[in-house]
Write a structure and sequence with these properties.
The complex is a heterodimer. By secondary structure, chain A is an all-alpha fold. Helices cover 68% and strands 0% of the residues of chain A. Chain A has a single domain, classed as Up-down Bundle (Ferritin). Chain B is of the alpha/beta class. The longest helix of chain B has 14 residues. The chains are: A mainly alpha, B alpha/beta.
Amino acid sequence: MTATVGRVLELGDDALIAAQRLSEWCSRAPEMEEDIALANIALDQLGAARLLLTYAGELEGRGRDEDDLAYLREDREFRNALLVELDNGDFAVTIVKLLFLSVFQRLVYDRLRAGDDRRLAGIAAKAVKESTYHAEHAALWTVRLGDGTEESHRRMQAAVDALWPYTHELFAGGTEGLREPWLAEVAKVLDEATLDRPADGWAPSGGRNGVHTEALSKLLAEMQVLHRAHPGATW
Amino acid sequence: MSARDLVAAVLDPELRVVTIEELGILRGVDERDGRVTVTITPTYSGCPAMDAIRADIAAALDAGGFRDVAVETALAQPWSTDWITAEGREKLAAAGIAPPAPATKVSLTLSVRCPRCGSPDTEELSRFGATACKALWRCRACREPFEQVKPL
């Protein structure tokens, strides 16, 4: 596997698994508008995932298309960061995850759109606009809930504390330089939301090497069951 | 009719008042050796209407006698709401959908005029709407809710 295939798979898997997690909120979000918002964001993530996985399959040159990569790989073959596979938890956890992820994706896509790989640049130039919108949405909720009631503040701080360790993995393998701009943007939002930035310490990783939490296995079981039960079926 | 005219008249499946040309998602129609190659671009990466648009383009060309058709997708340059034509904007407004303000890099809130009564006294209800490209607004003057094609 060339470095490029691996990198495209990482981005594609981040988007695919985030899409699956976000879509779990469909019909369950706290209000109708948010239900539509999360479903829309999931759709954007899925769109980016399809483009990236299609490209990864072509680069790999083994004849695998987007569906093969999404539905027929085992958990050890996925390259997404652990952050995106973690359970949704409550709405606070979902929003904080979205904030951390979408700011990261915006920075990555922004860099790729000016890169040498024109195919990747085209995908990134589209996705960067969408990630910007996702990050704005997550930031609005973070401020509203963090600087909200005592209970919403407590839940948001708990979510930030629980997820913070998982953000370190995002900045390994070619994206190290993005941690500083990421921190600047996220810290600004946390500050406005009266939330404390946790200390850096434990930094779980493994997702980029295919070593995942059990949360991914359960997610894949649900996401892949239909395709595996009825191989090649079409509508 | 030319292949170009047939394709340009195809309506967007979700915004049925504008054509794909007015929406700015038609990139090109190339006719060579009897084969028509149409290039389109998605509004959003995950726009679920793309399959319907491809099918509608093929059907329109087929009805005009063009049998050998290929529909390709191009991503670069990325679509912007600035590509919606003046006619497209007028048609959207006439259908009660507020056309987008110019897409800017700076994040600022521009007043969106109510497409029904024209009042600028409006408020955003939700940043996301029934399709990826729209947001939900409400007019404080006439109290009517309306959709807006959000600037991108």
